[in-house]
Amino acid sequence: MLFHPAIMALLTTDLLSLVLLVPAAAFAVQVLRHWNLASGSVRQIRLERATYLVATIVGFVLAAQLLALLLFVFTADALAVQFVGAMCAVGTLNVNGWGFPALVLKLALFFAAAAWLIVHNIDERARDYPFIRAKYGLLLFILPLALAAALVQFQYFLGLRADVITSCCGSLFSSQAQGVSGDMAALPPLPAQIGFYLVMALTLAAGAWSLLRRGSAWPFALLSSAGFFVAIAAVIAFVSPYIYEHPHHHCPFCLLKREYGYLGYLLYLPLFSAAALGFGMLTSLALARTAGARSALAGVLPRMTAAAAALWLVFTLLVAWFSATSHLKLLG
Amino acid sequence: MSGFIEVRGVRKAYNEGQPNMFHAVDGIDLDLRQGEVTLFTGPSGSGKTTLLTLVGGLARPTEGRVHVDGEALSSLPERFLTERRRRLFGFVFQQFNLIRGLSVLDNVMLPAYPLAPSHQHLHARAGTLLESLGLAHRQNARVESLSGGEAQRTAIARALINDPPVIIADEPTANLDSHLSEAFLAIVTRLKAEGRTVLLASHDPLVIKAGVVDRRVSLRDGRVVG
Amino acid sequence: MHHFLNRQRYLLDYTVAALRRRRAKNLGLLTVYTALVFLVASVMLFSHALKREAALMLEAAPEVVVQKVTAGRHDLLPAAHVEALRGIRGVRKVEGRLWGYHFDPVVAANYTLMVPSDRKVAAGTAILGSGVAEARGAAVGDLLSLRTSNGRALPLRVVEVMPHESALVAADLLLLSERDFLAISGMPAGFYTDVALSVAHPREVRTVAEKVLARLPDSRPILREEILRTYAALFDWREGLLLVLLVTSGLAFAMLAWEKASGLSADERREIGILKAVGWDTGDVMRMKLLEGGLLSLLAFMLGFVLAYAHVFAFGAPLFASALRGWAVLYPEVRLTPAVDGLQLVGLFLLTVVPYTAATLIPVWRAAVTDPDAVMR
């Protein structure tokens, strides 16, 4: 199904991202080998200049991957009609074993790029580029991630063969094709809701502790990052059914469609922003080895914590609102 | 003795590693005091312009260091160098180097953009500067339509927009007649009265003999000779 | 926050002024850029509109159509078969259909003859589709002569011509009475072309089809959902092919973009040198240049899309209608219903603006790292 226009767009975007990440990685290797801030040599100046290019490239990859994520989900949804049993994007992704891994890798790439840019931003504030080595080491990890995401997505599309009438005289319908599962595995609603609110409360508490009591930022960063997975599980387990007012409709993608008032965007925007900040904070904390790095970090952590905490709060309130105003009753 | 501007063992080589390599500046030590007008003289090729670019942070020395107001300049990473340069120096180039197609006002405000002050404030400040230089009536004129003297005054206004403590001017009177050259020297007097440090490079006799100059430094072949 | 906003404002001011200053160079690039967006958008809009029309058209079609198969080919269905299908549970309506093709040597085109089930056509009369009427120059009241299966001419009076809007579905249609149909087609009485089944619940369609097969082993049930899928896949594939053809232009465009971004005139180089000398750093210059590209992209995207919209929906996409439509001789002159969706826009964006931006990143950076002291010489 490679000739589908949206698929072509997705493959092109992946290819471009890869092509641009290669020179970025090449610079990264140079930086890791030769960076010496005090030298002021010609090579050092060249490396300092390279930082601008690399940062721009990663920013580009981030923006492109964000758009590609949206297109990926929408395309999967639009293609559902071509697969027996597929009701929406979930069905399409289940057509072969590469669908969901492709989505997961794309998400990982998006968050990795976001985290890199956050670390880069902190690095730029300090006088002596305290994160330089860690940053470029991280980049050398982003390139293979991008490659993996591109390959898996390619494999997925390669394996998409629509259940169409293959011959006018052939057998009637594609009885050979097993219908793909249109449903997603989901946790039972009560434990899911308890778990979600609990984790969110802990996260907000950790944030408050970090801000008001000047406690360590580690708990909040960890909870913020883990919060992403908890939130997605919650969306699948009970938020989606509440919004669709249907107990077995767990698809997290249908929320983005017009018939549900594009509520998905309202929900995912704070979630993804908070998660990106969380991953960024976690990465920065993990990479801050020197005193200079730690002090640069200390300067921005409060603001990041406040922003992330606010976003988590908004997300939680939205979830509670959708749960409360839904006509569906999941809890007994 | 250390001065407001400290230059130590500075060398600048071009075409490094090639047979036509030469040193535009070949070992200079200087201490310049704040609030003084220093003139660099010497024949063309003596390294005046190069020295000014090194002092002003537009280029890095191959060897040696430059310190301004106690802080290193030459060894800073590019981003911080630019930031410091923005705040410390105002340049008036020999060729004026105004951007064609933009008005006088736009050209003057240009160096302030990265600092992003409020538009109102910047506009007012630019207006005041232009007025003090007698250019208020020309502020919306395109720079291509300016006379030599007007262009130079625009360049000076641009150099002053961020209120820098140091003004550097390279051959400021090279394209001016004696009348306008005198006018320029009057402006330098005013800048000195405002407490700014002024560095000039010139081989114009009018400038060399000017009373406003506190110190004369002669250069030859990249070295100080007097 | 103020600082951030101020900065963007100054950047925007400068960039817009810079674009205006280099009008000639930017106009050239803008034209090519817009042309590319126009082409890609036209293909996408047209294909999408056709898909929608086909889907809408198929909505009225029966969920299952049962044909008899003999020696691997479509054969006439005896009336007894129709009765056999009535008893299947889940089937709301069973309807034997009479229809077929007729070649008209006068215009060298195929008509689809049909006996409608929802209305009665009087013997000796015919209702024409807009395409047939145009091809034969026939209007209401005229006599249309068709050859019967035993060579005689059968005159039919035209009592109605179907409206233009129905063209996509009914351009080559000719509705007549059962008696006339049998005469012209030579079909024996007691047979049908196929049977249309209405199934109440969409989920039961496949089960019904299985039951049909069980009762009539020599039959072939065709599901509407299969036709839908096939159509959609076909349109997608055709659209994709056309887009692939545009790849060469896309590549050429990318090269142009690279050229333009790196081929700085002496003037531009000087300008960047001046900016850096007066205090802009590499990041500021890069942002400015990227914004330049961004504004151009925005303009080209909007212009190209609007032009494509007009091309497809106001003019019927003359440039490549035939490639996407099919093989029928009688082309319906259709006003497609305007339809745009978010998926298209994002896809269009990823196929045009993103490659352009990617092509300019490295040249922009190379330009932005110019040494400021070069300006002193």
Termini separation of chain C: 39 Å
Supply the helix-strand structural class of chain A.
mainly alpha
Q: How many β-strand stretches of chain C?
A: 12
Q: Name the beta content range of chain A.
A: under 5%
* Beginning-to-end CA distance, first to last residue of chain A: 45 Å
Q: What best-fitting shape of chain C do the alpha-carbon axes yield?
A: elongated
**Mean pLDDT score of chain A:** 86
Residue windows where pLDDT falls under 50 for at least 5 positions of chain C: 327-331
- Fraction of helical residues of chain A: over 70%
Low-confidence stretches of chain A: 166-178
- Total beta strand runs of chain A: 0
Count of DSSP helices of chain A? 9
Percent helix of chain C: 55-70%
Can you write the helix and strand succession of chain A as a string?
Answer: HHHHHHHHH
Number of helices of chain C: 12
- Assembly level: heterotrimer
Task: Write down the Rg of chain A.
Answer: 22 Å
The outline of chain A comes out as: flat
Please explain how this structure is put together.
The complex is a heterotrimer of chains A (332), B (226) and C (377). Chain A is mostly helical and 332 residues long. Helices cover 72% and strands 0% of the residues of chain A. Chain A is built from nine helices and no strands. Chain A has helices at residues 5-34, 42-79, 89-93, 99-125, 132-158, 189-212, 218-244, 263-287, 291-325. In chain A, α6 (189-212) runs antiparallel to α9. Chain B is an alpha/beta fold. In chain B, 32% of the residues lie in helices and 25% in strands. Chain B has seven helices and ten strands. Chain B has helices at 48-55, 78-88, 104-109, 119-132, 148-160, 178-193, 205-208; strands at residues 5-14, 22-32, 37-41, 63-68, 71-72, 89-92, 166-170, 197-201, 215-220, 223-224. The radius of gyration of chain B is 17 Å and the shape is globular. Helices cover 56% and strands 18% of the residues of chain C. Chain C is built from twelve helices and twelve strands. In chain C, the strands form two sheets. In chain C, strands 1, 2, 4, 5, 6, 7, 8, 9, 11 and 12 form a ten-stranded mixed sheet that branches. In chain C, strands 3-10 form a two-stranded antiparallel ribbon. In chain C, α2 packs antiparallel against α8 (224-262) and α8 (224-262) packs parallel to α12. Chain C starts with a helix and ends in a 9-residue tail after the last helix.
